[in-house]
Amino acid sequence: MVPMPSADDSARAQGQPPGADAAPTAGNGTPGDANAPARLLDDSQRRRLLSIARGSIRHGLDTGRPPALDLAAEPPALTLPRAAFVTLELQRRLRGCIGHLEATQPLALDVCDNAFAAAFQDPRFPPLRATELDPLCIKVSVLTPAVELRFAGEDALLAQLVPGHDGLILADAGRRGTFLPSVWEQLPTPRDFLRRLKEKAGLPPDHWSDRLRVWRYRTESFGE
User: Fold this and answer.
1) d(Cα 28, Cα 51) in Å, to the nearest integer?
2) pLDDT digits (tens, 9 = 90+) for 27-61
3) CA distances to 42, 67, 108, 156, 210 from 138, in Å
């Protein structure tokens, strides 16, 4: 499990999708956006995942642990292995964000576990208080499988990036970092996005080596 970092934070897989959309949209763009991945979930499935996330946090406040899900009662699309991040906001400010970069368990369970972790185990924040639950805004980002990019140098890598849509995983020298596509809202140019991602991974912003590897993924994001 990773707290996904924002442009200004680093930790477990802390990603920072900033604000939840007022209404669900495909990928990170508007409906019909050619750069957005094909929509995986219908509105009822999205609502169910958001309900699972909120229920997990409520259960955590009551018991100190996430609930046990009955996967047999969930829609089939939510029982497929998929990776997801759950982001929490209060008054449009990040309150927690935890997720996985690889599919390790059914999507419904991943959202359940990540919601609990975002509320109570994100190292950047104290555990969520009961008074924060009602005003809390919850956002879920479902990841596509990551695909490794091929490039001959930094300029060739930058030329492949699609601002607003690409999530990136960067690895080199035993270090790794990732930004969700929503971080483009803070860092709109490919060069700044890449430099800050290197820093998030613990590398100098101007770092380059022939061993540097980068993977691209997209997200289907929706919120309350």
Assistant:
1) 21
2) 343 334 556 556 889 999 999 999 999 999 999 99
3) 18, 17, 15, 36, 39
| Dihedral sign (CA 100, 91, 67, 120) | positive
Domains, the chain: 3-144 (3.30.700.20), 147-218 (3.30.1490.150)
**pTM higher than 0.85, yes or no?**
no
Q: Which two tokens stand for residue 85?
A: 């991040």
pLDDT in tens, 116-163: 999 999 999 999 999 999 999 999 999 999 999 999 999 999 999 999
The span from the CA of 121 to the CA of 113, in Å, is 11
Going through the chain in order, the beta strands assigned E by DSSP cover 3-4, 13-14, 84-90, 93-99, 137-143, 147-148, 167-172, 175-179, 213-217, 219-223
Q: How many CA atoms are closer than 13 Å to the CA of 56, on its beta-carbon side?
A: 26
- Structural tokens at position 55: 């229920």
pLDDT score recorded for residue 157: 98
